[in-house]
């Protein structure tokens, strides 16, 4: 193979792997393999310096450290875009365009508005010769060395180099066609940005080193592009997306913006997705909403959509107004961050007594909705933000994301602004507030004495995944509580006795009372899982409720369970076990359970034990076991539904390690997988009712 063919092959491979790594974020080879390919290319290049290819990835690294960037005047000024924010401004834009082009058919090309930095690239004879930032639009900074390090930015336009053709097996007509597409001079405009995956990786690495992280991908891209040392830029995951041809000699025979992007694509530029051409305001609006809906799934940040008149002839006819084209406009998304003031903090009491601080804000329009309350999560968050009454804060809300306070501006803090502190008593029942050591949440100690906790407890009990009582909505619960008819969940089943009082309530009428009472009656026939879940025991979600029901089979057995027995239930740790134990010891709860049963709440006894609690889990056995063989242990696991596998992976649920366990044990440890000794394994089997002797008989080693 001639050196040049070898070089071309290596370049092609390195380009593919760069794309997989930077654009797709799915590396196909290890870093070491990549380095090996890279060094092979480098050594070929040092042997044959005359043959060095313009698009060699070795040319992307290196370059000298600059003292400063030179200023470059743009041949064609880099304009900015006017902004619109809503449908009526969109209609105005469309009307202005149509007024200037009477009787003409208008088509709009729609593109993503990428949130990075505008850069202009100049290619002479297909070779990248200059890259300049937007600057003030008239002149910018020469960042050519840095731009060269951007992996997906073509250093050489496709089809230009004779050397490329020599190495290509493509037919000469194809090569000629490609060749003819590459102009003598081409200036391309586009956006340099940092894809989100790369941004997150960069920040993770910075965090691990204890360094400062970047606020957002845009800032990270800007900081990376403006490094005087190109080696630093090279280490950052930047990408370039082309969106316009600023000038070309000779002019291509292209009629529209859409076609010019397709041409750029053929020349080797990466283009943003979601391009389309439409012909009405309605279709623009539809596309705008569709993009907004998928915004979070895109690999990079965008801040809106750019609307361009598709016909280049019409673009010329429309021309410019001051520094903005009349033929294009940015249709921005609603701002995702806005400033407002903190008026106060309310403490909300949850079902298990947790006190959650909720910030009351001067209402502010952000992310397309008006926000006036924002959760602050816990007292730790308040301290972290050092937020005080009257503070100016940044509120952030993206798409469907829950709004949050992102930043406090101490610069605007009023004099003597009061700090926020944890209340000492519950705002609802005045019971003392406690904050157990090591916990993030403060709690009202009032338990079911606290009306707020009672309401939450009842809400939880009637929820769909619990007793599923339709019709007993929040309003009813509050009203019935006000009448003293609903103090515990057991009272629900006595509401029928107060039928007349209910009919007078909230003007709901006889029909809905009838429906409600029927739903209550229906709910009496339930399952043990639903009942346990509905009790709202701390730490007991749906899954744990099911595991408890499966393990103990009856409510009485759960109530009688000791701590030791509780921790044997899968997913129940020491702390949850204590919560469960305490719940069933509390006289109030015992009484409520008795009342529920007395009122006729019932559930079927589980069918004969089909107890396969390890279903879906993958287990690995390693080392020598003293009391039975690995096969026998495997049979025990399988009888509980587990799969027994020969190798440890991230999917492994647990590893049973006997004497002289080796590499599998090491791997499990490094992956943080649960490891059981033989004794722990026996305990676990017994806790699930496995009779070990049954598995020893009849099995020979
Ligand atoms: S076209 C004369 N297309 O938006 C038209 N700009 O506010 C020039 N931008 O500085 C721009 N995505 O940084 C265009 N698809 C896109 C864009 C885009 C992002 C940025 C660009 C420009 C700014 C204008």
Tell me briefly what this model is.
The chain is α+β, with helices and mostly antiparallel strands and 701 residues long. Helix content is 38%, strand content 19%.
- Beta-strand content estimate: 15-25%
Look at the structure and name the CATH superfamily of the largest domain: DNA ligase/mRNA capping enzyme
Global Rg: 34 Å
Uncertain regions: pLDDT < 50 for 5+ in a row?
Answer: 160-179
* CATH classification, class level of the largest domain: Alpha Beta
Largest sheet: 7 strands, antiparallel
Measured distance between first and last alpha carbons: 59 Å
Tally the helices.
Answer: 27
Shape: globular
If you had to describe this structure to a student in words, what would you say it looks like?
- Strands 14, 15, 16, 17, 18, 19 and 20 form a seven-stranded antiparallel beta sheet that branches. This protein has a five-stranded mixed beta sheet with strand order 2-13-10-3-9. A four-stranded antiparallel beta sheet has the order 5-4-7-8.
- The chain has five domains: 3-59, Helix hairpin bin (Helix Hairpins); 82-332, D-amino Acid Aminotransferase, Chain A, domain 1, CATH 3.30.470.30; 337-412, OB fold (Dihydrolipoamide Acetyltransferase, E2P); 446-609, Orthogonal Bundle (DNA polymerase, domain 1), CATH 1.10.150.20; 618-696, Rossmann fold (3-Layer(aba) Sandwich), CATH 3.40.50.10190.
- The chain is of the alpha+beta class and 701 residues long.
- 38% of the residues lie in helices and 19% in strands.
- The two termini are 59 Å apart.
